[in-house]
Amino acid sequence: MSGTTIYALSSAQGRAGVAILRLSGPQAFDVAERMTRRMIPVRSPILTTLRDPESGIALDKALILGFTGPASFTGEDVIELHVHGSRAVIAAVLEVLGRDPGLRLAEPGEFARRAFENGKLDLTAIEALAALIDAETELQRRQALAHLEGHMRLTLEGWRERLLDALALVEAGLDFSDEADVGASAWLGDARAIAAGLVDAMAANLADGRRGELVGDGLRIVIAGPVNAGKSSLLNALAARDVAIVSPEPGTTRDIVEVRLDLAGMAVRVSDTAGLRDGAGAIEIEGIRRARKAMADAEIVVFLQPADSQHAASWADATHTGPRHGQAHVLRVISKSDIGRPAARPPGDYDLAISTVTGAGITDLVARLTELCRERLAAGDAAPALIANARHRRELEAAVASLRDFEAEASRQPGEVRPELAAEELRSAVAAIDRLVGKSDVERVLDRIFAGFCIGK
Description:
Blueprint: E1 5-9, E2 16-24, H1 28-36, E3 46-51, E4 58-67, E5 78-85, H2 87-99, E6 103-105, H3 110-117, H4 123-134, H5 138-148, H6 151-175, H7 184-206, H8 211-217, E7 219-224, H9 231-239, E8 257-263, E9 266-272, H10 282-297, E10 300-306, H11 316-319, E11 329-335, E12 352-353, H12 362-377, H13 390-410, H14 419-437, H15 443-451
Parallel strand pairs: 1-6, 7-9, 7-10, 10-11, 11-12
Antiparallel strand pairs: 1-2, 2-5, 3-4, 4-5, 8-9
Helix pairs in contact: 4-5, 6-7, 6-14, 7-13, 13-14
């Protein structure tokens, strides 16, 4: 156990029915027993009075829970003080804890960091815990919980064991190359078969369209089109509040206005963009440049064309889009249908017609967006994506690259294979997996990960 005992408010700040203060470390039980003047049982809650050990003044009636290490969240002795959630009670208890020379206030994420350092959670579970705390949608919750329960860890452990089997074959070929029963062809063939299977499995997960990252970050939906097409009005309608300025003056929107929404349990980022036109001023030109970049980065583009427009050819502006990680889906939408005659347009000229004034077509648009998002995220799949963030993808790509380098080395002509280099490529692949779960070379990412946690977690 760590030599210091930390404490913090683990529940949210502010007035509540119950607040939870957590202590972790070798002095946790001693502190709680001084404040309650009684023994604290293990894993058996007690309702008692919390007191200032110095003055004896009662602080609150509290429920006390004690957990001894290593059978606790942090792997250390842990005490939880469940007190009434008033600011006055919380302040009084924190003031008493702060006076104790054996305690110090926890840093952000320090409880979780101790859990990691004591082997209670690996790095993928720590990241999943942070994602679960930050989850805003049902799909985010499901993905984070699956990773917290070992969805990724179990897969990586299986891959690592197979990598070690392949490495053992190569090492045997190096160490016992003069033995009759351990020839080069034996270790090459078996090790290559293992590597080929792993490359296929890892590459299949890498080719998931960044589904896991998009669950966490949110799908990018960009509203685009010419000036005065009703883009800002549509954003306000989707957000059900005024987030963008609406004006009949052309070129009102000059920068990206973005809102995060929960669309049927999926996180989406909807952006209003500057109207596309020629002959704009310098500031508006920059806004148009940003609009086109947003379109190029989007997963879905909702391209508006007002019903009273005489420039149907500008649909061509919508076709020059495509995100870095796949082709954007473009919805061609006739806006301001209450003042025009979209039905008179040629069949297939547009996908939907809407009016933010009457509300016509908005429900259909939301339903279509929901359908597209579900398809993009494969939201109906039973299993969540294995890769949940950019770090996972980067390390898995490194493992695949090392395995492919191993395959290239092992595919040389007999007598040209350099077994030392082949073994090193397999070690590099193992190292990438170890970095993923936090077994090695993780100090550079720990501070950044735990800094995102709230104090008390």
